[in-house]
Amino acid sequence: MSLKNMENQLIAEVKELLESGKVRGFVGFGRGYGMAESVPVFITDALDAEKLVLDPFCGMTIAKYVLERTPQAVGQTRRPLGILAKGCDGLALARLMRDRRLQPDDVYVVGFNCRGMVDAKKVRARLGLKVSGARLEGDQVHFETAEGPVTLSKDECLLDKCLACENPLPEDCQVLLGDDQDTGPVGHRDYAGVANLEALSPDERYRFWTRQFERCLRCFACRNVCSACNCITCSLEDREVEWLGKDTQLSEQFMFHFTRAYHVAGRCVGCGECERVCPVEIPLMLLNEKLMRDIRDLFGVCDPHVPRETEPLGEFNPEDPEGWREEDERA
Amino acid sequence: MSHDWQPRIVAFACRWCTYAGADLAGTRRMDYPASIRLIRVPCSGRVNPSFVVRAFQRGADGVLVAGCHPGDCHYIEGNLFTRRRYSLVKRLLEYLGMEPERFRVEWISAAEGARFAQVVKEMTEDISQLGPNAKMREQL
Fold first, then answer.
1. C-alpha angle with apex B68: B64 to B71, nearest 5 degrees?
2. A92 touches chain B (CB under 8 A)
3. Which domain holds residue A270?
C-alpha cells in the first residue's frame, strides 16, 4: 500500500481515536516549513487529524517525545498517548519500556511497515534542486522537482539508518496501517564505516576523531534526542560526578564522546538520531556502530540494537572471551 | 622528551587479589620499575571506564586495570562484568586512537607477585618506547 493511502487511513484512525477519547493526544508528522519536509506534530483535537502527513520525509524517530508526555509527567489520567511508529520508533519505544521509563499502556501505537525514508540532505546534494514531493516504488524514489520528475535509487537517497534497517515493522502495535506483505529488511548494517576507520593507524584515527570532536559545541542534542539516553539525572550534568569535566577543550570532548558512546553501548537502537541532530555533523554512529559490532562479535548478541530484558553489559557469560587480547580478534 | 622522562602508569588494583599481589612483590623484594601508581579499588568491577580516560587526561602514560582471575572474585561475579566491560573499552580506546600498549587489563592473584612485577616491567618497557602520552591529555 502506498504511503498516500496509508496517510488517509492514518487520518481516519486518529480522528476516530481522538473522538472516542481512547487516546489523549497523538504524536505524528505534519507539514513542515519547506515543501519536502515533515516535522513532528502533537494533536489533541480530532479536527486537527487532517494535519497529519505520511510521506517519504518522515524520517525522524519521534518515540522519545512520548517521554515528556507520559501521564506521570503531565499529571493527567492514565489515558494513552497515540504515536505513529516506524520500525525504529518501535525499537525506541521498546528501549524506553525495558528501561522502565514507559509502561506499555502509556502509549497507543499506530504502526506501519516503513520501506525507508528520504534523506533531504542527500537529495539536495545530489539534485541541487528544490524537491516538492517524493514517492517510493520498489528500489526507486521518484521526486517531483521544479524541473520535472527525477528518479533516484534508494541507495542514493535514503537515510543511512534506513539503508542499515533490518526492522522496518514496529512490534507490539495496537493498529497496523496498510496491508503490505513484504515486511523484510529494507537494508543491512554492514559496519563498513567502522572497518574503514579500523584499517587506519592509531595516530590517523586519533587525528580523525580530533577533527570531529574539535567542532563539538557540547549542546547535548545527541543525548537529548537519544531514546537510550533517558536517565532522569544524567551524569554529564551531575556536578558530583567530578571525573566528567564540563569544559570544551579537546581532552574533555574525548571524555564526553567516550562516555556518551559507552553509556549507550548495548542499548543503542541504531536510529541515527544523534547524528542527524548534531549541528556540527559529528559522525556519532561510527562510535555506536563500533560498540554494536564488538558486542555482536565478542558476546554473540546477534541483534545488538534490539532491546531485550537484560542488556549485554548487564549480564555475562562465564565463557566470555577476553576482548583485549589480540588472538581473540574476531576468530 | 627530556632524557630523564619515566613513564607514569596508573593501575587500578582490586584490593583482594592484585593489590595483595603487589604487596607480595614488595615483601619478596622483587625488582620492578617505580613507574606504577597503584589505586586500590574494592573490585575491578568498581573501575568506571571514565576513570581510565580521566587518568589519561591528567597525565598518565599508561593505565592498567587488574583484578582477580575469573571465578576467583571476592564478590563472586564482579570481574565477569569487568571482563565484558573492558573488552569493549579497550577496543573503543584504540578506535579513538590510543595505542594498544597504553591500556592493559590483567588478572593477577594475591599469589602472583612475580606476575605483577612482570606486567609492570612489560608495560614500562612498551611505554618507554612510545614516549610520553599526549592523546586525550588535558591542556593547562
1. 140
2. no
3. 192-328
